[in-house]
Amino acid sequence: MEAMSSTKRRALAGVISAAGALLAWFSSDPSGLLIAVAAACICIGWKTGLLTIVVVGFAAAAIEMASDTIATGGWLRVAVCVASAFGLWLVVQLFRVVSFYEQVYRNVQPTMEDIPGLGWSCYPDGRMRFVNPKALEFVGLTVEEMKKLMEAGDTAWWQPFVHPDDRERSLALWKHSLSTGEPLIDEQRVRRHDGTYRWFRDSAVASRDEHGRITAWYGTTVDIDDQRKAEAALRESEQQLRQLIDTVPALIWCATPDGKPSYVNQPLLRWTGMPQSGETTRAAGQLAATFIEAVHPDDRSSFQAALSQSFRSGNPFMLKYRLRRADGDYRWIDGKAEPLRDTDGRILQWYGVCLDIHDEMQAQEAARLADERLARALRAASLSEMSVSIAHELNQPLQAVVANANAFQRWLRANPPNFERASRTAEWIIRDVDAAADVVNRIRALFTQASHSRQPIQLNTVVNEVCELVSDKLQAGKIRLEIDLDPTLPSVGADRVQIEQVVINLVRNAIEATQETPVHARILRIATRLHNSEMLEVAVSDRGHGIADSDRIFEAFFTTKKDGIGMGLAICRSVIEAHGGRVWAESAPGRGATVTFSLPAQSPERDRQPIDVGALVASNAQTAHEPERLPA
Amino acid sequence: MDASFPGSGDKPIAMLVDDDAKVREAMSNLLNSVGIETISFSSAREVLEAKLPDRPSCFVLDVRMPGLSGLDLQRHLQANGIETPIVFLTGHGDIAMSVEAMKAGAVDFLTKPVRDQTFLDAVSNAIATDIARREATLTARKHAADYETLTQRERQVLRLVIGGALNKQIAFELGISEITVKLHRSNMMKKMHANSITQLFTAWQSLPERVRRGDE
After folding, report:
1. A400 in the same domain as A490
2. Fewer CB atoms inside 10 A, N or C side of chain B?
3. Residues of chain A positioned with their CB less than 8 A from the CB of B94
């Protein structure tokens, strides 16, 4: 019965009542109607019972009238029936009250013991009714002690087991629940039998009968100490993490998968001077707008494009851009962002950093400029520097040979001749000559290393660059430069550095030759042209004193300069011939000179060997007497 | 150092400084063949750390050396008060470099490869310069020692004699008799080993300036 729902119970009562009514009708005896009263009282309630009694009264009267027995004691029977119905109603009500208390006092105990965890129950007024064995065990209470507590009848019986700091709040909540019947949810520290306190969550609900009366309070108490501690640790670690993020000298931001900023750290706010707000979860759109506004106008479109591209594709974001600092300066920022993905590869969050690399960028830029200047200086100086090195390297063994040869002579001419020293001197001479040969071999090796692979180069570009390199010298010498470049020149396969050195060398020679020319006639002319559509020619002309011996100027160690060593043009010839070209000079005495070199339009594969300066130096004596190739 | 050498004496010695052993040996060989003793150093640093011989000598320095160059060594030697004459040898010296070296007191500045006679002449010349310099230093030292033996009164007389004062004027100046002046003067001349006023004047000139100014 108890388990049935009220609808079912009403239906059952209706059926039984109808059956009773039919029985009464056919037997013409209203006592059958009592069945309906009993059914209504038991299955529905006391109000319906009373109503049924009234209906039964009328129904009984109707039956009596219908059977014409109303006169023969009919009314009496109706009255007896109604009285019986009322008596039945009273009996049922009494029984219900009795069975309710039975339930309250006896029925519950076994079910409480089955509650996992700590369970307890109270009377509606809050007195202790029952505490399950686990709870007793936890607080270290014996059954006798529990009975004493029960007999004491205190509604706040649990207080001795609760931490003093939590008692007041718990008591207030308990009283509130007792007076209103609202469920109790409370967290408090409960003393264990060993005296340590652990956090527990109390939840209790009132059990009510079908009339809404509270019959008892049932509660469970769950140990949440570990959870509380974990939560506290979590809070602390989150706090630490946040402090870390707000302290590291990096600008950090987070964004949602669709690119809305969700967090920016304190350094970022400070650095950019964005308004500091306690909550960093401000309106995302506003935050993004403020940030983009701080990006340098020149970088803004590329910044937005790169960022939205990353948000769309999920590729990491990387960009160097300028960002306005709080003081209004734009500084270079190395921006990076990576997405955090879940196991399915979906993006959960974007994490980004902005690193201030302004100082490094400036240092790098300065270093790059310095490197460039140095490289230019080296390019302009390398040939003469190299010549000095070669001269020094060769001078050492030569000096030793000369001195030892003289000593050798003297030891022999001495009186008496010192043969022992002479013979040792002769050994030294041989050794020194070998050393000179070694130097030559070393220079050869040096050139082998220095020979770069050939690439297509534009001679016009080379000429322009050289002119730039020597512009200081031209200005200092008050020399006017005329450049006549053929724009249709094809490219040539050549070693750019070597060809550049050749042009520099020719131009410097021309500048030096022009030193004694009257200022108005100091003109240096550089022309490029294509000859027979297969040879490219570069001609450097000056208005100097001309070359007296234009046949010999390309020989090693031949020089017309006071402080020259005569290597420059010899190296030039080696370089050009190694590239499959020729170099020659034309001069009218007193009217200047023109030195021209030619290079084939297509780089000949066979000419890949390095320049053989060593051989050049060593075979100087032979080449000096070769017939000069005349210019075309 | 290639050879052991007596720390002092009159035989000249040439000190060669070159980082190239071949050149060092060859130059040393050449000098030895004309009877000049040599001592070789491979770096400027080695020279500065060595105890130099107290003999007529000269340096032959290579300009271009790793570490301290020949010109650097010249400056260091001068700073240490070593006035030994220097002959420079260089592979590729320019005019500016030679001017600097000569201004700083180099005896000669030669370019490698150098002709033997040119080199030997330069070294002999440098050694001759050093001999003269050493003699001058020696005489000056002797004169200074002589001067130290003079009494206060004799020094006053010396100073006035050098100033061209006659005995009578000296006597007046010092407030003593002319006879006494003559006695002081004769003692002073003897102590200074001077037979004439000219010799006395030469000796006076060789004295350190500090003494001549009277800052004793």
Report:
1. no
2. C
3. 563
| Predicted pLDDT of residue A605 | 46
pLDDT at position B94 is: 66
Please give the torsion angle defined by the CA atoms of residues B91, B96, B97 and B100, in that order, rounded to the nearest 10 degrees.
150
Which chain B residues have a beta carbon less than 8 Å from that of A403? 23, 26-27, 29-30, 114, 116, 119
Give me the residue from A402, A410, A565 closest to B33, CB to CB.
A410
In this predicted structure, what is the pLDDT of residue A376?
A: 54
- Taken in order of first residue, the domains within chain B and their CATH numbers are 13-137 (3.40.50.2300), 150-213 (1.10.10.10)
Count structural domains, chain A.
5
Q: Is B15 within 8 Å of B31 (Cβ atoms)?
A: no
DSSP E strand boundaries for chain B = 13-17, 37-41, 57-62, 86-90, 108-111
Shared domain for A98 and A12, answered yes or no, is yes
Q: How confident is the model at residue B37 (pLDDT cuts 50, 70, 90)?
A: very high
Q: Does A414 reach chain B within 8 Å, measured CB to CB? A: yes
Contact predicate A220/A203, CB 8 Å: yes
Which single residue is written with the structure tokens 């402090």?
A243
Provide, rounded to the nearest whole percent, the portion of chain B with pLDDT above 70. Answer: 93
Q: Among A158-167, A247-256, A293-302, A562-571, which stretch is predicted with the lowest mean pLDDT?
A: A562-571
Domain that holds residue A118: 111-229
What is the strand order of the sheet B57-62 is part of? B37-41, B13-17, B57-62, B86-90, B108-111
**From CA A222, how far away is CA A243, in angstroms rounded?**
34
Q: Which 8-state DSSP code applies to residue B8?
A: B
Which of B33, B64, B116 is closest, CB to CB, to A392?
A: B64
Q: Cβ of A435 and B64 within 8 Å?
A: no
Contact of A565 with chain B, judged by CB distance below 8 Å, is answered with yes
**pLDDT the model gives residue A419:** 92
**Lowest-pLDDT range of A21-30, A326-335, A527-536, A608-617:** A608-617
Give B-chain residues touching A396 at CB under 8 angstroms: 20, 22-23, 91, 112
A330 and A377 housed in the same domain: no
Q: Which of B16, B19, B22 has the most A C-beta neighbours within 10 Å, making it the best mutation to test the interface with A?
A: B22
Write phi, then psi, for B192 (nearest 5 degrees). -85, 5
User: Among the ranges A277-281, A548-552, A597-601, which has the highest mean pLDDT value?
Assistant: A597-601
